[in-house]
Amino acid sequence: MVGLAIYLIFYNGMTLFAKNSAINMAHEDYRQALQLFQNDLHKAVSVPFFLSSTASAVTSLPTVTVDSVAYNGANVTTAAEGISFQVFGGKSGEGFEVGRNIASGTSQVVITGSTAVPVAGQRLIIPAYQIEADITAVTTSGSGLTALYTLSLASILSASNSSGASTLPGDITACSASNYTSTVYSSGVTDYHIICYLTNRVCYLAVPISGTSPQAYALRYYPCYNATYNTTYTVFTFNLFTAQPFQVATVNSATNQQYTAITMSLQDRATNNRGFKITNTYFTTNVPYRYSLTTYQ
Amino acid sequence: MRLGIPKKRGSAAYTLIEILVAIGIFGFFASSLTWTLSAMNYYAVLGRLYSGAMEAVQQQIDLVLTDGAFSYNSSQFPSELPSVASGSSTTVATSNVTIYQDNSSATTTVNGTMTTKLENTGTTYNQISGDSTNLNIYRITVTLTFTYRGKNYAVTSATMRAPDTN
């Protein structure tokens, strides 16, 4: 009798403890995943686009294809495995200035005016000329605010560029680093101060974890995502049970492409559901992007 | 040969008092354990509910900040931002706002009531000439109340929005 009582007390105690751990685990993962995603999407400077993943294991690099129609008016009700958008790189969106003339046909651009050193993998955005291209290499000369950063771009800047990612209507002339430091502008002197920015293309992607039943997913965060730089990521959670968390949201009974609906079901995979309920964290919410600096996604 | 006074032999069993004391200590330990773990679960669930409530409030804040177009003098008012006279306020209540939903059974277990208070602050821009322009800046306060195990809880967040064009 005494033994049975002791057994029941410890059994119930362990059950309650496991339930507590499961709730807290799912809750913590929820906070990590959603709040960081929400913070990033609020900072987005481009229109997001969705990604489809065909990865089969969490250890492998997913093959990702762009769901190009997701934000273009069609197929907006289809959920997707991933979402990608650009946020400011460098020091919280600190602007740069074009430091040298840019001739049509080049793939190098010199920028200056900031101490935030560009890094390969970022994107160069020159809004006035709709120049948007991935940076493949950076060389620096000088220091401080007058340092010159020579950016090698993944695409050639020309008016006939067929990639659609970068176009150059004409040569950008009369740009020089000295103009940046000049404070006196006399009449008749042609000085152009062409502002440019750096962005990081971030990505959130749900990737299936092999050998799990029911199927679980890892939510990866790529701080810099493009065709070359896509191997560095952070896993926010291994306890995701939603295959396609991202979708265009329905707001006031109509699909609204400014809002991304995110739906996630999280549950601690280390414990089963023995004897207790609702240890999961399930949420669905709409998050808008608020600003679009870039012309292209 | 044994010498001296023989020792008194000890009892072979526990006394009733000893057993009652042991049961008491064990019962105290067991009830404390159960109470503590139940309280931990209560606060864990409550924390999760607060997160859900915060998320619902944030969604409403996002909506009133981004829905448009909002132009006071052109009488363009999105559904979340109705016309409010300068210095006045209005409150919109929405019931059955989902705070927590069980994903395995898709049943909602905790709902709340969201109230959105919109107040035209009456802030003006005063020019040197003496003219004054009402900026029609709204102060928006979103409160979500819910009940869990007989106790009432509330989450509140506030923001401000100026018209896109005045």
Written overview of the protein:
- The complex is a heterodimer of chains A (297) and B (166).
- With 297 residues, chain A is of the alpha+beta class.
- Chain A has two domains: 20-81 and 204-288, no CATH class; 88-199.
- In chain A, 15% of the residues lie in helices and 39% in strands.
- Chain A is built from two helices and 16 strands.
- By secondary structure, chain B is an alpha+beta fold.
- Chain B has one domain (16-161).
- Chain B has one helix at 16-66, and strands at residues 89-102, 107-120, 124-126, 132-134, 138-148, 151-161.
- In chain B, the strands form two sheets. Chain B has a four-stranded antiparallel β-sheet, with helices on one face.
- Chain B is rod-shaped, with a radius of gyration of 32 Å.
- Chain B starts with 15 loop residues before the first helix and ends in a 5-residue tail after the last strand.
- The A-B interface holds A 5-6, 9, 12-13, 16-17, 19-20, 23-24, 26-27, 30-31, 34, 38, 42, 241, 251-252, 258-259, 265, 267, 273, 277-278, 280-283, 285-288, 290 and B 26, 30, 33-34, 37-38, 40-41, 44-45, 47-48, 51-52, 55-56, 58-59, 62-63, 65-67, 79, 100-104, 109.
Please give a quick description of this structure.
Chain A has helices spanning 2-42, 177-181, and strands at residues 49-53, 64-67, 82-88, 96-98, 100-102, 106-112, 123-126, 131-141, 148-157, 172-176, 195-209, 216-222, 234-240, 246-251, 254-266, 281-288. The longest helix of chain A is centred in the N-terminal third of the chain and has 41 residues, at 2-42.
Q: Could you list some keywords that capture this structure?
A:
heterodimer, A: 297 residues, 2 domains, three-stranded antiparallel sheet, B: 166 residues, alpha+beta, four-stranded antiparallel sheet
